[in-house]
Amino acid sequence: MAGLGRYLLQSVQSRDYPAVQGGLAFFTLIVVATSLATDVMTAWIDPRVRR
């Protein structure tokens, strides 16, 4: 069962630093995009948040 998490773990174990940096950047982008989408939807649903 292959996936990004397993690939990232194998990259850490084999000291493949470019792959580790790319994987962490990808996961960071996902977290930031999710947080931004949550904030935008919250402001859209509840107008009291917009100040």
Automatic annotation (TrEMBL):
It comes from the Bacteria. It is a multi-pass membrane protein. The chain crosses the membrane at residues 24-45. Residues 3-51 form the ABC transmembrane type-1 domain. It is found in: Cell membrane. Its main location: membrane. Keywords: Cell membrane, Membrane, Transmembrane, Transmembrane helix, Transport. PANTHER family: DIPEPTIDE TRANSPORT SYSTEM PERMEASE PROTEIN DPPB-RELATED. This is ABC transporter permease subunit. It comes from Carboxydichorda subterranea.
